[in-house]
Design a protein that fits this description.
- The protein has 30 helices and nine strands.
- By secondary structure, it is an alpha+beta fold.
- Among the domains are: 206 residues, GTPase Activation - p120GAP, domain 1 (Orthogonal Bundle), CATH 1.10.506; 96 residues; 105 residues, no CATH class.
- Strands 3-5-6-7 form a four-stranded antiparallel β-sheet.
- Helix 3 packs parallel to helix 27 and helix 16 packs antiparallel against helix 17.
- This is RasGAP protein.
């Protein structure tokens, strides 16, 4: 698990515990529909609390279809949370190396800088698991991380104090470790509480309305990072992927509406076809002159119509996906609306919606539309035409969500009808986004459950622990002004923060979390503001549901209306099943206690308790299909995240190989001098390369493809020869010499096509192939 684990003593018991409530804990994030009263919420929460505190052995284990489906879903969510963190770390490495490798390609990097990059690459390996080197420190850091997790105001304050240079490493720890279990309600709600604190400060301390949530600050970086977590990625995949991929396929659809670019392209085509330009079409005209050209206007007019149609289809898809929008995203929109109204009481809905749009579209939707590959929505890099179209769509949506601004691009004014037609529609959608229930009641219950746990853990690296400690220490004067505050006490006990460890010594540890100031929850009824009768009632309901789920279907005991006394008696007298006997005896005791307290009555068949049990069983019956469907959707998201992880790893491997080659050459160690032999040839059939996506397009006739194959050879470090062969002929039909520098530069410039006359290769896939075949060979 990538973060704190809130689970009962056995995994199976968690699934049974969570399923006792009409709205399961696993669905808390998406079911804030206000249907439960505060009292009911507290009663239902008691189930999880009771089970977590009283279950001492695996006596609540259920192995029905629902329990198995829930267990599989939990494990899948944990894998997505863990993989999201790995990708976040890898993306940081790749961003850094992109810029450094560009300098290497241009031969503008000194040897010392090459060594720095090499060290960075060496640190990109998977970390090993280990233990904290000091038991006393383990306890103190466990106290500190529990405090930071359960009292989000400290992290919120820290996020306001750090610089932009420091924010990424802090966000990595906060978003993917401290609150890293992205589908667990307590952690998600605590993280959102932290956001509320940060946003409140931002609104209170930003005098200029127009810059609210728009400037590139640690807060805006936080919001963008939040949208990149599993639930946000799942939404983008489900809502936008199909629409974007359909557009990407239209490689020849040119919807450029910048008059100057349209004019220049038109002039270039005329000059190429006719050799000379007519007198009325000179080169070097101004943007204004290009816009006045009638031919340019005629070209642009239908493009404007088509752009508006495409933008409308995107908008309709986004609006239709309202219910798919992650709860956390909607809750942040709700806070923006609330804080806007508080700061500007007279602000119109339109004004408030521009701020909501500043988050929802600017930080969440539009980056995914403009760079869909970075968001794992498409496989390759889009061609120039669809890439430009996607940029226009994002601008149109942003102008729709905000006040349109055409000062820099006056030609965008022509798209004004799209704004006018959809303004009310988009405002309604953004206000609808805000219509979600708050979580404070359930968070209070979850925190009581957490306090009762003895197995709360955080999977975290030693360097994350030390880096967080160092940031807290650096800003202690602001964060812990009161020397008697819990944070101040813990920082004083810990002393100075240790230095960051070398990569080889860094370890992933499971840090036990608990409060230094924990108070025993002996009096549950007082702590939770519920009665003893309600505790007994929920325990009885839970126990009977467990018994019913353990019984075979279609037996006399499962017929409605349920006879609770007979069910309890049958369970208590079960042969060869001591667990069921315990449940039966306990259910008999609970029926008796609840009768004595006047809560239920045997004369009406314990109707109050029986009806709730029957309703819960119906709910559980329908829940399995929902769990299976959610698992199906998340499996696709997990595959996408894994594929992206493979792409990032391959990118790092390419950089590593390239750097090894450059450094070897700078030291005068060519393969020739080392008397290394030529590597290869490695043979691939046309079918193989087509299947792996290396061949993007082929002009080889279908009936001849079976006789075509390719040889890949590396005669020198960083140099490759691809030759195309026809079976039965000794010599290749053609050869292509490649330099790794060229491939990397093509990838950097988003040039995805490599022309080999008869076939078009995909640059990224060629790099992956070269990695697989040559990367482990010495001197590559």
């Amino acid at each position: 698990m990538a973060a704190a684990k809130l689970q009962a003593p056995s995994r199976a018991s968690t699934s049974s515990a969570s399923s006792f409530t009409p709205v399961s804990r696993q669905n808390t994030m998406s079911s804030h529909d206000g249907s439960r009263s505060m009292r009911a919420s507290k009663r239902y929460s008691v189930t999880a609390l009771y089970l977590s505190m009283s279950a001492k052995e695996k006596d609540l284990e259920i192995e029905d279809d629902l329990a198995r489906a829930q267990k599989a879903l939990r494990e899948l969510k944990a894998r997505i949370s863990s993989q999201s963190k790995k990708n976040f770390v890898l993306e940081k490495d790749v961003r850094y190396l992109d810029s450094r490798i560009a300098l290497l390609i241009q031969n503008r990097m000194a040897l010392e800088e090459q060594n720095e990059v090499a060290n960075h690459l060496d640190e990109a390996a998977e970390l090993q698991e280990g233990f904290f080197p000091n038991d006393e420190k383990t306890q103190k850091y466990g106290n500190l991380l529990f405090l930071l997790q359960s009292e989000p105001r400290h992290i919120a304050h820290l996020c306001r104090l750090v610089t932009l240079a420091e924010i990424d490493s802090l966000l990595q720890t906060v978003m993917f470790t401290i609150y890293g279990n992205q589908y667990e309600s307590r952690e998600e709600h605590l993280l959102l509480t932290m956001f509320q604190s940060v946003l409140t400060y931002q609104f209170d301390n930003t005098p200029d309305y127009s810059s609210l949530l728009r400037a590139n600050t640690p807060v805006s970086r936080m919001m963008t990072t939040y949208t990149r977590r599993g639930p946000g990625q799942s939404y983008l995949k489900q809502v936008l992927a199909e629409r974007i991929n359909s557009l990407i396929e239209l490689k020849d659809l040119d919807l450029e509406i910048n008059p100057l670019k349209v004019y220049e392209k038109m002039v270039s085509e005329i000059e190429e076809s006719q050799g000379t330009l007519p007198p009325n079409m000179p080169k070097g005209v101004t943007a204004e002159q290009a816009a006045e050209n009638e031919k340019v206007q005629a070209i642009i007019a239908p493009r404007l119509t088509m752009l508006m149609e495409i933008a409308n289809s995107f908008l309709s898809t986004i609006i239709a996906g309202l219910d798919e929008t992650p709860y956390g995203i909607r809750w942040i929109c709700k806070q923006i609306r609330s804080l806007s109204k508080r700061k500007y009481p007279d602000a119109s809905d339109h004004t408030v919606c521009t701020l909501i749009g500043g988050f929802f579209f600017l930080r969440f939707i539009n980056p995914a539309i403009v760079t869909p590959r970075s968001y794992m929505l498409i496989d390759g890099t889009p061609a120039d035409n669809p890439k430009r179209t996607l940029t226009y769509i994002a601008k149109m949506l942003q102008n729709l969500a905000n006040k349109p601004s055409y000062a820099k691009e006056p030609y965008m004014v022509k798209l004004q009808p799209f704004i006018q037609q959809n303004k009310e529609r988009i405002n309604k959608f953004m206000l609808d986004l805000c219509e979600v229930q708050d979580f404070y009641e359930s968070l209070e219950m979850d925190n009581y459950v957490a306090l009762s746990k003895k197995d709360l853990e955080l999977s975290i690296t030693l360097n994350e622990v030390y880096a967080t400690h160092e940031l807290l220490e650096r800003h202690a004067a602001e964060l812990a002004k009161d020397e008697s505050s819990h944070l101040s006490v813990l920082l004083h006990e810990l002393g100075s923060a240790p230095a960051q460890l070398p990569r080889k010594e860094n370890r992933v540890i499971n840090l036990p979390l608990f409060s230094k100031w924990e108070t025993p929850l002996d009096d549950l009824t007082a702590a939770l503001d519920i009665t003893q009768e309600e505790v007994y009632f929920m325990e009885a309901k839970s126990t009977f549901v467990v018994i019913m789920r353990s019984l075979p279907a279609n037996t006399p005991l499962t017929r409605r209306p349920l006879r609770l006394d007979r069910i309890a008696e049958a369970a208590a007298t079960t042969r060869n099943d001591s667990v069921m006997v315990k449940k039966g005896i306990r259910s008999i005791e609970l029926l008796s206690q609840l009768q004595e307290l006047g809560v239920i009555d045997k004369s009406d068949g314990f109707a109050l308790l029986r009806d709730e049990i029957e309703q819960e069983l119906v709910h559980l019956g329908s829940m399995k299909d929902k769990v299976v469907e959610e698992s199906r959707k998340l499996e696709e998201v997990y595959r996408t995240i894994r594929d992206h992880n493979s792409y990032l790893i391959n990118q790092l491997e390419t950089y590593k190989s390239y750097l090894h080659n450059v450094r070897g050459q700078s030291e005068g160690k060519t393969r020739k001098q080392q008397k290394h032999q030529v590597l290869g040839p490695y043979k691939f059939t046309h079918q193989q390369l087509e299947k792996e996506g290396v061949i993007q397009k082929s002009n080889v006739p279908e009936n001849r493809r079976a006789n075509i194959y390719f040889n890949f050879t590396s005669p020198l470090p960083g140099t490759f020869v691809i030759s195309l062969h026809y079976k039965g002929r000794n010599r290749g039909l053609l050869e292509l010499d490649l330099k790794l520098d060229d491939l990397l530069e093509m990838q950097k410039d988003n040039q995805e096509e490599l022309d080999l006359e008869y076939v078009l290769f995909n640059v990224s896939k060629v790099l992956v192939l070269l990695n697989k075949r040559f990367t482990r060979k010495k001197g590559w």
